[in-house]
Amino acid sequence: MSVKKPLITGVVLLGIFCGVFLISFVIMSLVMEPQTVEAPVQTPNNSVAVMAETKTIGGHTIVKEQIYYRKCHHLETRELKDDVDFVGKTYAELERLGWQVYEADKGTVIISKDVEGFCPADDAKRHIAKCGEYLGVYKGPITMGGELLTELPISVSQLPQDWQTRVLEGGYQFPTEEELMDALENLDELL
Q: How does pLDDT run across 72-99, given as a tens digit for each residue?
């Protein structure tokens, strides 16, 4: 008999719990009204475009510029303070100039765009690498496969052994065009 008593108590408690749940569900269904959300109505003049036409960059607006350079995959971000190039322009004008405009915190606007080329730091770099049987001067870092700027009338086989090895392994990279010119002058003396 002692086993039946806990079993009966468990069944009774389960019944009470289910009953309370069912009653609360029915009451909530009767009391609560269903919530509906209406889809935004498309206006003939497209209100988003109207907002972009009327919103402007003010003199005290903080503008954060973000430019993504696709060639080198770098993102440059900077905060523009008191930048007269953007003050007074509407969001729509900026969008026509290729910018995407986002409002961030109050008083802050983020403008962003993608650029096909290198970032300024990588755009200044030059490298010497093999171009057929000769040397070529390329724009950008070695690893980025930059554009051939000029082919030099120097055969790879004419180079000193350490230069040949380096060129055949990928090339020489220079931070600026001036450093490239210095290296080419030194190379002329070795030939």
A: 999 999 888 766 778 888 889 989 989 9
Cβ contact 64:113 at 8 Å: no
Residues 6+ away with beta carbon under 8 Å from 69: 75, 76, 114, 115, 117, 118, 119, 122
Beta bridge partners of 148: 138
Is 52 a residue whose pLDDT tops 90?
no
Three-state secondary-structure class, residue 28: helix
CA distances from 72 to 75, 81, 145, 162 (A): 9, 27, 10, 29
Beta 126-131 vs 108-115: how paired, if at all? unpaired
Query: So where are the chain's domains?
Result: 47-115, 125-190
Q: Given the DSSP bridges, would you call strands 62-69 and 108-115 parallel, antiparallel or unpaired?
A: parallel
Q: Does domain 47-115 have CATH number 3.10.20.420?
A: yes
Q: What is the mean pLDDT of residues 5-20?
A: 77
**What is the bridge-based pairing of β-strands 134-139 and 126-131?**
antiparallel
Pairing of strands 172-174, 126-131: antiparallel
Query: pTM of this prediction?
Result: 0.62
Cβ neighbours for 52, distance < 8 A, ≥ 6 positions apart:
90, 91, 92, 95, 101
